[in-house]
Amino acid sequence: MNRDAFETRLFAVLRWVVIVVLALVTLFPFYYMVLLSVRPVENLLADPGRLWVGLSEWTGRTYQEVLGSPEAGGQGMLDLLTNSALVSLGTVVLTLLISIPGAYAVSRLRFAGRTQIHFLFLAVYMFPAIVLAVPLFVLFTKLGLRDSLPGLMIVYIAQTLPVSIYMLRTYLSSVPVSIEEAALIDGCSRWQVMWRVTMPLAVPAIMANALYVFMVAWNEFLFALLFLAEDRSNWTVSLGLAQLAGGIEVPKTVLMAGSVVLTVPIVILFYAAERMLTEGLTSGADKG
């Protein structure tokens, strides 16, 4: 066997070894979390290190406790999931409605400072969130937006809008201008060109942005704690999970069930939009 053939076979084997190791490192924590969430707490205490249990030992009581209302002795996570879904979906819709025209203007229209403005969008992230927390708390208290889901949505929109515009601008810059020029010659207005010609081509990038915004709004904790802590009926699921983690009387199996409830929606959305997410993140790399 010559050297080239040996190296080819060696790297082929090493590639699969690396893939398997990375898959185990990534999937095992999630698997163990799900396993703990379906085990009765007495069985877990008797054999905490067990990595496999039969279906006969599974229980749904942990999820009943997590999702059940506080009046029924549960943790009320179903209501918190609803709040998180409303905030996250509302943030996605409003962010895209603002960022799509903004990104199109930055990538297509000519105005003073056009080449520098996208750096100004990213300058927002030079400031840590904790620096903005106190001023926003005071401002939203005076405006009457504290302890409300719409107020939290405004914070999330301001947090995600700069990066959303930056990502969309990168993608739109790769769309050939000649396509839009042909539509303009055919009598379309600039607004019609944006929505009827350019946006259908930018669907992968829009989906990538939507998923990014949704993940930020779904998982965010600091501002949710700051603005919603006083009224539990407005809590998001991240606050509910933090309460479970800090409760001494809450079994770890219930905590793991809450973690699964928090994680599963993001996993489902990611895999459902994986192809478009990949296209949206890579297609804008080659600018025209």
From TrEMBL:
Localization, UniProt: Cell membrane
Membrane topology classification: Multi-pass membrane protein
CDD domains in UniProt: TM_PBP2 (cd06261)
Keywords: Cell membrane, Membrane, Transmembrane, Transmembrane helix, Transport
Chain ranges of the ABC transmembrane type-1 domain: 81-273
Domain of life, per lineage: Bacteria
Primary site of residence: membrane
InterPro entries linked: BP-dep_ABC_trans_perm, MetI-like, MetI-like_sf
Membrane-spanning residues: 12-34, 85-107, 119-140, 152-172, 193-218, 254-273
Pfam families referenced in this protein's UniProt entry, alphabetically: BPD_transp_1
Xref: PANTHER family: INNER MEMBRANE ABC TRANSPORTER PERMEASE PROTEIN YCJP (PTHR32243:SF18), MALTOSE TRANSPORT SYSTEM PERMEASE-RELATED (PTHR32243)
Similarity comment: family membership: Belongs to the binding-protein-dependent transport system permease family.
Name this protein carries in UniProt: Binding-protein-dependent transport systems inner membrane component
Organism for this UniProt entry: Kibdelosporangium persicum
